[in-house]
Amino acid sequence: MIDTGINFVARRGVLLVNVGTPKSPAVSDVRSYLREFLTDGRVLTIPTVLRWLLVHLIIAPFRGPKSAHAYKSIWTAKGSPLLVNGLDLADALQRQLGSKYLVRLAMRYAEPTLRETLSELLDHHKVDELIVVPLYPQYSSSATGTAIARVQELLSERVVIPAVRFVGDFFADEGFIAAQGEIARDRLAAFRADHVLMSYHGLPESHVKDATAGYCLTDASCCKQITIKNRYCYRAQCFATSRRLAGFLSLNETQYSVSFQSRLGRTPWIQPYTDKILADLHAKGVRRLAVMVPSFVSDCLETIEEIGDRARADWKALGGEDFLLVPCVNADPRWVKALGQLVAERA
Question: Which of 18, 69, 192, 266 is deepest in the core (most CB within 10 A)?
């Protein structure tokens, strides 16, 4: 055997990144989280001074108590669902990948912080290869982009920078589609839905236009297929995910719809809006509605409270008979296996 003079085994670190969550549903913690989140220039794309004034003087003071109430309604004995589900995913992926990998979860905003988690991986565990996975199926500058940018910023401060690979969008990944599709199929069969609504987190129209050099939202057909011009159009990727899921579930074009939720402020956001489409579906005779949320991999405030509670209440107020929220992939074994394959492809 040749002596290479190397007496250690290289270990790969896997860094899962999600958006973040307050430490607690207390108003002070929610305000702190909102300030960190919304002062990111990739989230609110307005001049820095105006963004600071808007967030610190209007949004955090006035939206904080309302958001705190919403977080309190979903908080569990273990903590925030987003964090709990994320840690479960990291643990399951660690078991899937084995000892050659070290898997950790970090949040773009709040805790566990990216800075502390990177330090643990690189300084304490001495990993010399890093695979970063922003946990967003569809690309957006305000989610995937800011996660990648922050990791690169933190790494640029270091003397020794490891080999880094990023898992980008996976909106059409067969493993992700199959995992979410099978979770939905199991429940749809028992529920007997009249219609399936696929609700995605919304974005300002300006974000989509900026990502496509103004190409998108110019006509009604621009999101019907992915081309070189709209490769990073979040809205087009959402429709592509929906088409893949509809195919997996054998849904024709009349059996499902696509919408966008969680809009904030008065600027135009991508449409159709989830809260508006509910009335349209009811007027068309839909009474038993199932909702999927394929822009999230972990159930969180936007799925449990916004859809599972508020949208359900709106549906019942319209006269809807029943409402089903299909869970996210969370730490489902089928998703863990698919995520492991995505990581292995970057190794």
Answer: 18
CB 211 within 8 A of CB 234: yes
Closest CA to 196 of 144, 147, 260, 242: 242
pLDDT digits (tens, 9 = 90+) for 111-145: 999 999 999 999 999 999 999 999 999 999 999 99
- Which H, E and C letters describe 272-307, residue by residue? CEHHHHHHHHHHCCCCEEEEECCCCCCCCHHHHHHH
Q: Which one-letter amino acid corresponds to residue 98?
A: G
- Total domain count for the chain? 2
Domain annotation covers residue 1:
no
Could you give the CA distance from residue 239 to residue 222 in angstroms, rounded to a whole number? 11
Residues 208 and 181: beta-carbon distance below 8 Å: no
45-56 pLDDT, tens digit per residue, is 999 999 999 999
Peptide bond into 25 cis (omega under 30): no
Short-list 136, 140, 145, CA closest to 235? 140
Q: At CA 182, angle to CA 320 and CA 73, rounded to 5? A: 50
- Exposure string for 205-222, b = 16+ CB within 10 A, e = fewer: bebbeebbeebbbeeeeb
User: What are the structure tokens assigned to 204, written together?
Assistant: 């300002």
Decide: residue 237, CB within 10 A, 0-12 exposed, 13-18 middle, 19+ buried. Answer: buried
Per-residue pLDDT tens for 295-346? 999 999 999 999 999 999 999 999 999 999 999 999 999 999 999 999 999 8
Amino acid at 221: S
Alpha-carbon distance 28 to 22, whole Å? 9
* Beta bridge mates, 260: 200, 273
For 204, the domain range is 174-325
Is residue 82 in some structural domain? yes
